[in-house]
Amino acid sequence: MWQLLRPDAIKALEDPLVKKVLPRYVKVAEDELPAKFQLAKRISVKSFSWKEHEEGMKKFHKLQERIDKGKISLKKLKIPKNSLLDLKIFLVKEMMKACELCEQKCRVNRIEGELGVCRVGKECLISSEFVHTGEESYYVPSHTIFFWSCNMQCIFCQNYSISHRLEPGIKVDPDLLARIVEKRRAEGCRNLNLVGGEPTPSLLWILETLKFCEANTPVLWNSNMYMSEKTMKILDGIVDVYLTDFKFGPGECSKKLTIAKNYWEVVTRNHLIAANQTEMTIRHLILPNHIECCSFPILDWIARNIKDKCLVNVMDQYYPCYKASDFPEIDRRISAGEYAAVLERAKRLGINVKD
Predict the structure, then answer these.
(1) Cα(121)–Cα(282) distance, integer angstroms
(2) How far apart are the C-alpha atoms of 235 and 136, rounded to whole Å?
């Protein structure tokens, strides 16, 4: 059915630019290499500490290199009693006792049910899961799980009923979610797409889901990238592709339109970390009247720092949602001229533009 809806996706993994920038993703999607979380399950750890995590990641990178070069098969590796994935789960639980998963750093004890900015407590809450055919062609069909709530609260969010918690979340256990992931992969989904809202507040249950999951599916971390450095360390060895949302420039726009603090510093830092961990697609949603202050600085930063390590989707589908009408400068669709100006700058900078 998805082939009828998105015929452009049928041969998208054969695209030379996709294969150049996302080579490992392509091979995992086609089941030629194991997803990173399956490798993390097979790394043995001796204790549960950040120091042991550092040692475990060294083992992980050595194992990935051997696997990718065909020197060893995943099938020959047993799952140890205490794995690197188990260690990551333990560390996230510790982080949640005074929560610092994202840069809000509320310091509430979520393990005991206390609530911070995101209002996500000690239960796994999702909004929906389905086979998504509206993503980038090389990610379609995508098994998309929308996790409840968000830590940034953009006032124009197109998923505002989820991110602003206007609808209740649906409680689901990680073992059941794992069975759903396996089913969707068997149905032909190219990946597991973790989004929201924002997936970061639900990191614990995502890791627990992957622990139960036996399917070999690449993990897309579809995120606003407003997470802590510790969370970035946890995601290393789990995420196959960062599918990022980079909206605001270094000025005051993020402060006006979200509840995020130090947005530019946090998000540029995390993009640099992500580019050194794995493959990446950056989405930039053009906002009306925010070309000079947001779009151009973002593209310039990408060009200076990571342009050869990512694909960039310049998105023109903004439309005023939720409380956008309270801000006249964004209370309209973008113009053809605004889109053309951003696209032209991206191409002039040599950025790998791909929708």
Answers:
(1) 29
(2) 22
For residue 292, the enclosing domain spans: 2-34+119-348
Task: Count other Cβ atoms within 10 Å, centred on residue 78.
Answer: 8
CA distances (Å), origin 17, targets 289, 310, 322: 31, 10, 36
**What is 294-344 written as a DSSP string?**
IIHHHHHHHHHHTGGGEEEEEE------TTGGGSGGGSSPPPHHHHHHHHH
Query: Which tokens belong to 188?
Result: 């032909």
Domain assignment present for 59: no
DSSP summary character for residue 101: S
Q: Does residue 230 form part of some domain? A: yes
Residue 67 three-state SS:
helix
Q: Is residue 107 assigned to a domain?
A: no
Does residue 28 lie in a domain region?
Answer: yes
Domain count within the chain? 1
Q: Give the domain CATH number at 207.
A: 3.20.20.70
Which pLDDT tens digits describe the chain residue by residue (355 residues)? 789 889 999 999 999 999 999 999 999 999 999 999 999 999 999 999 999 999 999 999 999 999 999 999 999 999 999 999 999 999 999 999 999 999 999 999 999 999 999 999 999 999 999 999 999 999 999 999 999 999 999 999 999 999 999 999 999 999 999 999 999 999 999 999 999 999 999 999 999 999 999 999 999 999 999 999 999 999 999 999 999 999 999 999 999 999 999 999 999 999 999 999 999 999 999 999 999 999 999 999 999 999 999 999 999 999 999 999 999 999 999 999 999 999 999 999 999 999 9
pTM of the complete model: 0.98
